[in-house]
Amino acid sequence: MSTIDPKFGTDISTAAKEVECERLFQHVQALEGPRDPSSHYQKLQEAGHYILSSFQQIGLTVGIQEFSLESGSSTYQNVEGAIPGSGPELLVVAHYDTVPDSPGANDNASAVAVMLEAARVLKKVGSSNLRFIGFTLEESDPFFEGKIHHLARSLGLMDSQHRYLRWHTQKLMKRLSSLAKGMRLHASDFAEAITLAHKQLESEMDEKENLLAQEVAVLYRGISHKSWPGILATIGSARWVEEAIKRNALIQGVICLDTVGYCSQQANSQHHPPGFQPSVFPHHGISDFTRGNFLAVIGDGQSGFLSEAFHEQSAQPSVDLPHISLQLPLTFEQFAMGMPDLLRSDHAPFWRAGFPGLLLTDSAEFRYPYYHTPADTIDKLDFDFLAKVCQAVVATAMALT
User: Fold this and answer.
1) Cα(137)–Cα(119) distance, rounded to whole angstroms?
2) H-helix or E-strand containing 284?
3) Of residues 145, 55, 43, 147, the one with CA closest to residue 94
4) d(Cα 67, Cα 71) in Å, to the nearest integer?
5) Beta carbons within 10 angstroms of residue 76's beta carbon
6) H-helix or E-strand containing 295?
7) Within 164-279, where are the H helices?
8) What is the distance between the alpha carbons of residues 144 and 233, in angstroms, rounded to a whole number?
9) Is the pTM of this model over 0.70?
10) Contacts of 238 (CB under 8 A, 6+ apart)
11) Which of 14, 117, 209, 336 is the most buried if burial means most Cβ atoms within 10 Å?
């Protein structure tokens, strides 16, 4: 694959060097802070406006997809910026919401920063057929979570700040969640998994705790690993994909960025799922797989051309991004039934709809000790590593478009 953009004659390695660490830092700093829809709805809206304003300053063609949730009066926005062209578009996407009470510097301001800086550089060098999307509600459906909180409060088990009133209840509900997660692959739906887990804990629970477990199971009825995207999480991207299908959008592929800014040189800082052998996959610049200093690139069975392009461009001397390419010959359904953890981001609705896509991640909780906590702050991020991720995205986008 050439390092020269055939349409514009732009040297890809030169374009990659346009990425600026300071701009990445400023974006994360501007976005840092809880941006969840339940407790910080205004901050969530402000983050979306920041992305839109950044797209406008870059000179992109902007748009907003606005939607609401069932039985909810609030509206939510997917924010888009495009560099139009005449062919199928390559999408670069990142979600901008957080879990409650997390500043979300790594998850997912780091990814939004890469998306915005990549957009700036690609616009500057004259690339086309590119669309950048900031998705909302990747983390969860606030109304679904609200139903659970309402149940717990009505039973006198939780206060208005969504805190369990007794340690005994908190401990048992955490165990219920953990047990149910382990049973999901062997249950017909999430409700059955919760019911099976509840049976193991029933004797330890008091009357109200047992009732809460039963009612929570009812809420999850009919939801499975195949159906949860767009219901429990990845809601913004699922809505976008639905509209894209209706308008017969021409999509070359998707590069999804999620939690990409934490890098550790310490031995044993990187963990892997049981039985996983990383050394058998294509990789670059990794001498010790126990050190969390590389990017994970995950693709499905139809995303091989994306994986190959990213692998080749990331290995260029001008980028030199340590990474592992986990491109697996599987369908969405096979991931859902065998490795559902690899569907936990906005690439999932695209895979389900048949669009090629990559997930780029630092592996989240397999490396990052502050994942989904109040300690996910800007001081934890490695901006030199983040710049390499951005350079790799720029180089790959230019090579593909």
Assistant:
1) 22
2) strand 283-284
3) 55
4) 12
5) 23
6) strand 295-299
7) 167-183, 190-201, 207-219, 235-246
8) 10
9) yes
10) 229, 230, 349
11) 117
So where are the chain's domains? 12-139+247-400, 142-219
The Cα 99–Cα 372 span in angstroms is 6
For Cα atoms 288, 294, 297, give the angle at the middle one, nearest 5 degrees: 120
CA-to-CA separations, 3 to 105, 162, 212, 311, 312, in angstroms, rounded: 33, 53, 59, 13, 10
Burial of 285 (0-12, 13-18, 19+ CB in 10 A): middle
**Residues 145, 108: Cα–Cα separation, whole Å:** 20
Give the residues across from 327 on adjacent strands.
Answer: 299
User: How far apart are alpha carbons 264 and 381 in whole angstroms?
Assistant: 10
33/348 Cα distance (integer angstroms): 26
What is the helix (H) or strand (E) element at residue 14, kind and residue range?
helix 12-16
Longest dimension (CA), the chain: 71
Which CATH number, 3.40.50.1820, 3.90.1150.10, 3.40.50.740, 3.40.630.10, labels domain 12-139+247-400? 3.40.630.10
Residue in the structure block whose two tokens are 């592929």: 253
Distances in Å between the alpha carbon of 126 and those of 71, 81, 119, 120, 171? 44, 15, 11, 10, 55
Nearest to 52 by CA among 26, 78, 76: 78
Contacts for 357 with CB less than 8 Å, ≥ 6 apart: 253, 254, 255, 256, 299, 300, 303, 306, 347, 350, 351
* Alpha-carbon span 357 to 350, nearest angstrom: 7
Distance separating alpha carbons of residues 298 and 265, to the nearest angstrom: 22
Mean pLDDT of 114-123: 98
DSSP tag of 189: S
d(CA 232, CA 253): 24
Distance CA 321, CA 315 (A): 6
Q: How far is it, in rounded angstroms, from Cα 178 to Cα 21? A: 39
257-313 confidence digits (pLDDT tens): 999 999 999 999 999 988 889 999 999 999 999 999 999 999 999 999 999 999 999
User: pLDDT tens digit string along 150-163?
Assistant: 999 999 999 998 89
